[in-house]
Amino acid sequence: MYRVAWLITFVLISLNLVYSQSPPKRVSISGVVSDQAGATIVGARVELKTANGSQQSTTTDQSGNFQLRGIPPGKYQVQVAYGGFDPATVEVTLDTQPVPPLQITLAIASLRQETTVTTTPTQISTEAADNKDTVALSEQSLSNLPVFDQDYLGAMSRFLDSGSVGTNGVSLVVNGMEVPNLGVSPSAIKEIKINQDPYSAEFARPGRGRIEVTTKPGSPEYHGTFNFIFRDAHLNARDPFALTRPPEQRRIYEGILTGPIRQSKKTSFLLSVSRREEDLQSVVFAQGAAGIIQANVPAPARTTQIAAQINHSLSVTNTISVRYSYLGESVNNQNTGGTVLPEAGLNSGNMEQEITYNQQTVFSPKLVNNFRLLLGYERQSNVSVTRAPKIVVLDSFTGGGAEADYLRTEYHAVLMETLSYSSGKHLVKGGINIPDLSRRGFNNNLNSLGTFYFSNVGDYLQRRPYSFTQQQGNGHVVFLEKLLGLFIQDEYHLRKNLMFSFGLRYDWQNFFHDNNNFAPRFSSAYSPGKSQKTVLRGGAGVFYDRSGARPIQDILLFNGSRLRQYVLVNPGYPDPISGGSLISQPVGITRLQPNINLPYVVQYSFGVERQLQKSTSLAITYFGSRGLDQFRSRDINAPLPPSYSARPNTSIGVLRQIESTGRRISNSLEVTLRGNVTRFFNGMAQYRLASSHDDTSGITYFPPNAYDLSGEWARSDFDRRHRFELLGAINPGKLFNLGVSTSLYSGLPYTLTTGIDAFHTGTANARPLGIPRNSLQGPGYVDLDLRWSRDFALIKSKKKDGGLKATLAIDAFNVLNRVNYSFFVGNLSSPFFGRAVSAQPPRRLQLSFRLKF
């Protein structure tokens, strides 16, 4: 063995002496830089260094690639850095032979940051947060894709699973803290992810029920971005339900400015501003007393958002940031369109202010603390356009007034405190999470003049409503909403290729006397073989839901005396009680089911991840979900069978009981392909085969027959059998970039109803005998969006991200101009039965201009 080593050494020395007589041959180093989820990083700084200092540097291009040329043989360090990520360094020894492309993975700055650098094809990681079915898009990826009005969150929400979304909506996590809104303009977004570490105990919802956003920090150098987006009706196709093309126009001015404060290396700022001026129109398609009604209704909207952030390093191990954000919105003629006439619209206004404080303290290389606090104020008001009783002719037209006068105020606080400890093979993380501690005030003046309900236009012409509802009394209420979460998690790497993660979370909500909501979480990842190109990943967890504020408001207001709610069956019209008084009528009450539980979901999954090429991966994952104690409402004082003519307690009207008795079963198989699929295409494709059944449509859903729930078990409202998504960019060269977004879905179900109040509850949602919920099938959905963009260097600079660059872009949405119907009528009494009364927007063009320095 030693003789062989000496022989190899002698040969190498001899060759070195021979080649030293002539100039050394120079070679190149190339590679790609990506984050832990596999998303390429654009604009990362790459430096080639020797012991004597830097030799040359570059930045990664739009595909995350870099190349360093003309390098003589020797020993070097390749150092890669990008804001918000830990820098990575790899040792490279060059001779005269070509070097395989480097694959460099940067970890987001946190306690455990392992940088994987290899000159062989990228190895799939067994880290809990490195699951390859994560949907992750960086700032550059988002800017290259066709995204309507820069609504990045809306564009990413297509990858969410409706069964994983809670009663209170999608969980939005910004910089590690669950928040009510984004708080910054689109250009301040650094990265968006869905389904990263789906069984993390840190968050209340599963990975496919939350959106995680990382925003840009302040920069030590001055940088800025300005965007102008323009749309006009002359560039759009006509809505299929409109007689003429609505004269719409939308203008968006948006951007950010960041840099140091007074040339300080420790203090920086970031200012983001967005102004939206939208002169939009709603399309009315209804059946009135005189025939078909088609109209375009102006619905102008104005939105202003301002956010200012300061980042400061108290020391090398202690950093803080403070951000103030303001949001102001106004919309006129809201809720019109479809069968809702202009007179039934409302004008709304919303104002939000928030202050967010973040602090990270590194006590030691093993111990890190993160503290985040948000304080906010909101004020939202709705005012009806017309002051008149509301008239609803089911699935034909809605007129009169909107009866939507409403004022909501809220003072809220959100807190997140986490402590992370790393020791050997363990990464332990725990903390306290207060998703909401709020003082909520409501002035509920809804339906103060009353609403008449008719089964069809014929009954309306004959003045024969089947129901009349009205609210009277004191609609003002103030209460505290309190949410609390505690968690602890241990990510244990038994071996380099084997990881186990164990977690436990506790959730609590006031008003619900359910105090045993412990949610265990578990996940594992195993990479067999030496190549580590394959990972077997699985997990399971329990996730508790929350009710949101509106059901609590209803319980406090509709207690039988505070705000009186009346429901009259077969009333007169236009005087429901022929000159009498509603005071003598029974009053409705809303209450919680005794011993109600918070709903929860048991989710589990198993999948295989495979590295196909150096920068392409394939993930095949099965997801199962069981929803237990799901919310629904039931009128437990409904008229008794078989005649359904009289309520058991005649002194009470509707007795709405909010229950947790529903259930759901969901199964899906998901296939995700991501990375540089070809030389010119970088992106991801995802196909989902799914099935979901349940017996409730949510907390506000009332079964038609409160005494017979046998027909409630059926397809879920969101049940789509097939779903395909494609997002990516085609980069043929310097001429242009082409962003592509494609969505192909099978149809959603909808319910067949009679349009008759067969059970005399005041609600005409009865189904024909023996027909379950969601028995009808809607059509599929097809959408193709494209974005063409071209970059221009106005002022060139050798500095990273230096100079002044301009980008011109044209986005085309629904390029095929396919009519995607959005609402089908299942009411047998409606003239539109089996037909749609509205559709998704037709083909639209969007022009944009960007300046960046």
Topology record:
Blueprint: H1 2-19, E1 27-35, E2 45-50, E3 53-59, E4 65-71, E5 74-81, E6 88-94, E7 102-106, E8 117-118, E9 135-138, H2 139-144, H3 152-156, E10 171-174, E11 177-178, E12 189-194, E13 210-215, E14 223-232, E15 249-260, E16 267-288, E17 291-315, E18 318-334, E19 346-364, E20 367-384, E21 390-393, E22 397-400, E23 406-423, E24 426-444, E25 451-454, H4 457-461, E26 467-473, E27 476-495, E28 498-509, E29 518-526, E30 534-544, H5 549-557, E31 563-569, E32 587-592, E33 600-613, E34 616-635, E35 652-676, E36 681-694, E37 714-715, E38 722-730, E39 737-745, E40 749-750, E41 776-777, E42 781-795, E43 804-813, E44 821-824, E45 836-839, E46 844-852
Parallel strand pairs: 1-7, 10-13, 21-25, 32-35
Antiparallel strand pairs: 1-4, 2-3, 2-5, 5-6, 7-8, 9-12, 10-11, 12-13, 14-15, 14-46, 15-16, 16-17, 17-18, 18-19, 19-20, 20-23, 21-22, 23-24, 24-27, 25-26, 26-31, 27-28, 28-29, 29-30, 30-33, 33-34, 34-35, 35-36, 36-37, 36-38, 38-39, 39-42, 40-41, 42-43, 43-46, 44-45
Describe the structure.
Helices cover 5% and strands 53% of the residues. The protein is mainly β. The protein has a 22-stranded antiparallel β-barrel. A five-stranded mixed beta sheet has the order 9-12-13-10-11. It is globular. Residues 1-24 and 109-123 have low confidence and may be disordered.
